[in-house]
Amino acid sequence: TTTTTAPARSTITELTDISSNDGGNYYAVARVRIRNSQTSAAVNGASVTVRMVDDRGNTTNRACVTDSTGRCSVTWNVRDTRAPVTATVTDVSASPVGDGVQASAVLNHP
């Protein structure tokens, strides 16, 4: 019997809405967590690209690099009237290589 183990990949294990509002501006904030698919260890130093789209279709790309917990955050300051924002992780460059799976979350106006 031959057992084949899939290679380790960097995978998105969390995409969390941590948005805030100061009364006039909406800070759409997405926190991403990247882990090793085999060991579940945090992936430090992963470059993460997030596409953010407001409710009017305006788009921006934001990037961050994960820390020792495997987490990083991106922020887009938009007017209150443009909420919510949808955040989609479009790329993870890391070691081990990213698994290619995208993740999306709606960042609601707090």
How do the SSEs run, as a string of H and E?
EEEEEEEE
Q: Please report the distance between the alpha carbons of the first and last residues.
A: 55 Å
- Rounded radius of gyration (Å): 16 Å
- Spans with pLDDT under 50 lasting ≥5 residues? none
Helix content: under 10%
Average predicted confidence as pLDDT? 94
Strand content: over 45%
Q: Which class best fits the helix and strand makeup?
A: mainly beta
What shape does the CA trace take? elongated
Largest β-sheet summary: 4 strands, antiparallel
By DSSP, the count of extended strands is 8
Helical segment count: 0
Structure description:
The termini are far apart. The strands form 2 sheets. Strands 1, 2, 3 and 6 form a 4-stranded antiparallel sheet that branches. A 4-stranded antiparallel sheet has the order 5-4-7-8, with no helix packed on it. A hairpin with a 3-residue loop joins β2 (about 20) and β3 (about 25-35). With about 110 residues, it is mainly β. It is built from no helices and 8 strands. The model has no long low-confidence stretch (mean pLDDT about 95). The chain is elongated, with a radius of gyration of 16 Å.
